[in-house]
Amino acid sequence: MSSLDQYSVFGSPIKHSKSPRIHKLFAEQTGQAMQYSAELVPADQFVQTVKGFFTQGGQGINCTVPLKELAWEYADLRTERAELAKAVNTLALQEDGRVLGDNTDGVGLVTDLQNNHQIALKQKRVLILGAGGASRGIILPILQEAPLTLTIVNRTVAKARTLADEFSHKAKINACGYEDLAGQSFDLILNATSASLSNDLPPLAAGILAAGGSCYDLAYANEATAFVRWAREQQARNSLDGLGMLVEQAADAFYLWRGVRPATDPVIQMLEAERNS
Ligand code: ATR
Asked: Is the CB of 130 under 6 A from ligand 1?
């Protein structure tokens, strides 16, 4: 390997990952001497590829689908937010040779909401759609902002209940099915289902978004997702997708590795401009 500190994103598929671009911009902006690559790593090659990377002098790895749970297992020690997320998106080699696992997805979402879009969570009624890994990853950072209520809704209600139970030592979380939402309304609706990937929409009743409320899709795409289009129809104050979250989670990974947090605004603006061109 070259003498520059080495970082990489592992996943499968990986071709369309924006992470190498984002981290290159961060490194240029902060004057950090480092290289960041992308590697196609299927789940069955994860452990040997990570070991090889660190043995050859690599300093840190981002993990994406389908490797976040494997990265959680691999880490020698974990931050609390990673522990509860049961998923790790950032591995960092420590001075003593151990590998720290962190999850910066949830804090990335919260930063994008609060800092970039002035959407407060404190004292708000927050609804999370979906009860899979994406939902689990954001719950603790959301709870830390003290929402008035947090509700998880899922097609398979039992999964929502199990997830709520996992965090019951932190706060009370409501869990229900979509039909149970009748008559309720929320200030912020976060789409953490995988429905957007198939241009699908969870079954949301009209009136569920409170007046002045906002919607955020954790997924991002060049075109507006089905959920973002639905949010616009509801006249949400904000109808956002996860591009900002992607950049913010990368900034927190960068901070963990390099001890300096890059300015995210210019990078988000650049990526926004590119997808609108
Ligand atoms: P991830 O790790 O991305 O969260 P996952 O663990 O497979 O992926 O979870 C996907 C989530 O999206 C689940 O909550 C799933 O609901 P079920 O548990 O009932 O299957 C939800 N989901 C996927 N497609 C959906 C759709 N069209 N409408 C509503 N929910 C959907």
From this structure: yes
